[in-house]
Amino acid sequence: MSETDIIARMLPVFQEVFDDDTLVITASTTSEDVEDWDSLSNVRLIIAIERAFGVRIKASEVAQLSDVGSLADLVAQKLAAGAGA
Amino acid sequence: MTVGTAQLSWLPDVPADFTRRLKELDPAAPDFGTALQRLATARLNINQATSLGRRIEAQLSNGGKLNPFPSLKLAVLSNGTITLAAGAIQAAALRHGVATQVRCVEYELATNVALSGEPEMGAFAPDLVLLAFDYRGLPFDRMRAGEPAKPVVEEVIGHLRMLRDGIKRNFGVPVVFQTLATPPASLFGNFDVRLGGTWRSVISAVNAAIVELVEEGGYLLDVAGLVERVGSENWFDEPQWLAHKVSFQLDMAPAYADYVGRLVGAVRGRSRKCLVLDLDNTLWGGAIGDEGLSGIVLGQGSADGEAFLAVQRMALALRERGVALAVCSKNDDANARQPFRSHPDMLLKEEHISVFQANWVDKATNLEAIAKTLNIGLDALVFLDDNPAERGQVRMALPMVAIPEVGTDPSTYAWTIQAAGYFDAVSFSAEDKQRADQYAAEVQRVAVMSQARDLGDYLSELAMVIHFAPFDPIGRSRIAQLINKSNQFNLTSRRYTEAQVAAFEGDTAAYTMQVRLRDRFGDSGMIGVIVARPAEHAGEPAFDIDTWLMSCRVLGRKVEAAMLSELAQAARAGGARWLIGRYVPTAKNGMVREHYAKLGFTLVEELPSGECIWQLDLSAFSAEDLPMVVERVTKAAA
């Protein structure tokens, strides 16, 4: 799955977590761009992403994330590793 | 799976347009509170519950109200990231009838606030403080395997007592203690529970001591009981704890929140007071009106029979602790009471039932009568019914009645009712035991007006699809079964063997109709049969209706009108001017005495036997609009 595909699949998750069905995200979206995206809702976001893609994301990995693109890349990596295993 | 507390399996599904519905609610509207509660009653996930909690918070923190619900301010002190569950707690509390504001204090700050107070929390002025500490937030550090539990227990209880006293001093309100879940950590395996100083033995001793501690005042949230249900390996999530200090797996938040909601509801006196029971396929298997006393399934010897016994046993146990019982069933009163009076396996007797409503009026109207008779609110009722369409209809008309989603397997009913927390209590007294008797000294039956309620909207939301076909080999045995077993909605009660039914299939002179119905709640299967024959009436061609029967489960859904419309169309196509119908009275079919009159037929004559003959002039007949999609297989195509 490409980064674009993953971001497209992430969109409904973002919309539900941040309670905004008009929310739009791109690879360069950061927490600065989304109202209510704080450290607390980030926990719900990460857990919802884990659930949606069937992956597990470690705290150390969360700390490395800078924007939606890097989250999508991380998910892509995990999906690829999972598929190869 | 039988009953799923982790998924709150008894709650209805979340509507597909939940986000839009929530957004469109107007806080200024008088029904804002009830509309919000309606959404809170669905099986919300953590994110949906958080969104809903935000609306509750916005309304209450502005000094607004959520009528008609009493309000409560809850402070939650926790060693974990409990703020994530705050919205879920608010949604769950509203589900249980309380408009709740929540303030969370986390990690080390939680203990400080309890002991030293804090201006912001003082200004919030909580009514109740929940001590949401798990084993990681309490002093277990002196625990050693093989050492006695006692000093550890004393230290933990001493710590909780200190927090409680601080809260009393600083805020002057009661606390809610939690029992502790045992982590899935084991040193000795089977031997853990026998050895002092292991998690299994220490937490078990601490929980016993917490129960004693609550005797000094306060309330108890039985988290250990919840985790026993869902399993500690599902409850604890070490990666989430280490990453985010979330005390339990976030998917468990709705279940945890529901436990808090029940307790808050019980504290505010909002627990339910009456269990209303449907009869056919809820208290026994089969329809008493059709199968008769010897035909219903109840008692030892069959899985379903024992399951229905368990439902009755559960109802009786609830009654003994003060919950009133009532009956609400589509049946003739005499038929419905028969098992209570004469079936040897019935555990429930008439004297256990405070209000007994068996009639053909819609159930919402009967539930209103039950609440009124008992002088309790509709929000004090729980309604157990196996029929999803009935549940949907009552839920739409009376959203404040709690209606558990149950499947078709009666073996899950008793535990579902008990898992859902409808009757949570914070105390139990001798008077409580007597309460069910006080509701009514005798079995009451209240007269209700029929057609009290406009069902048009409900019927169109059901998205019914009715399917007509002539008799065919696939339907044959079910047709024969209906023809031989339907007693109530059966105009002529003419019985035909399966071979005779097969003969109709090839009989070009006979008009036959088998009817199936499905809707968004599921497929009801075959629910109606008509047999008619060409005849002559007043010198003109007619269709004479030999057999017309229907399953009582689909009453009140315009199925009769749809069948008539279909039959009229076929009769016209066959060149008929008249439809001729007969009502042949039996001991059981009184409910269809006026069937033809209701459909617009006029009486031709009443014979000395009581048989009535009716006619419908097809040249003047126009079919009414039907709230359903019609599917049709014609004889030529079949």
Annotation field: number of helices of chain A: 4
Beta percentage of chain B is 15-25%
- Domains of chain A (count): 1
Name of the CATH first level of chain A: Mainly Alpha
Q: Give the fraction of residues assigned to helices of chain B.
A: 25-40%
What is the overall shape of chain B? elongated
Biggest sheet layout of chain B: 8 strands, mixed
Classify the fold: give the CATH topology of chain A: Non-ribosomal Peptide Synthetase Peptidyl Carrier Protein, Chain A
CATH superfamily of chain A: ACP-like
Task: Report Rg of chain A.
Answer: 12 Å
| Proper CATH architecture of chain A | Orthogonal Bundle
Task: Kindly summarize this structure in a few lines.
The complex is a heterodimer of chains A (85) and B (638). Chain A is built from four helices and no strands. Chain A is mainly alpha-helical.
What does this structure look like?
The complex is a heterodimer of chains A (85) and B (638). Chain A has 85 residues and is an all-alpha fold. Chain A has one domain: Non-ribosomal Peptide Synthetase Peptidyl Carrier Protein, Chain A, CATH 1.10.1200.10. Helix content of chain A is 62%, strand content 0%. Chain A is built from four helices and no strands. Chain A has helices at residues 3-17, 39-53, 59-64, 68-84. The radius of gyration of chain A is 12 Å and the shape is globular. The model of chain A has no long low-confidence stretch (mean pLDDT 89). The mean pLDDT of chain B is 92. Chain B contains 24 helices and 17 strands. Chain B has 638 residues and is α/β, with parallel strands linked by helices. Chain B folds into three domains: 70-267, SGNH hydrolase (Rossmann fold, 3-Layer(aba) Sandwich), CATH 3.40.50.1110; 274-453, Rossmann fold; 460-632, Aminopeptidase (3-Layer(aba) Sandwich), CATH 3.40.630. In chain B, the strands form three sheets. Chain B has an eight-stranded mixed sheet, with helices on both faces. In chain B, strands 2-1-3-4-5 form a five-stranded parallel sheet, sandwiched between helices. A four-stranded parallel sheet of chain B has the order 8-7-6-9, with helices on both faces. Chain B is elongated. In chain B, helix 4 packs across helix 12 (253-267). Classes of the chains: A mainly alpha (85), B alpha/beta (638).
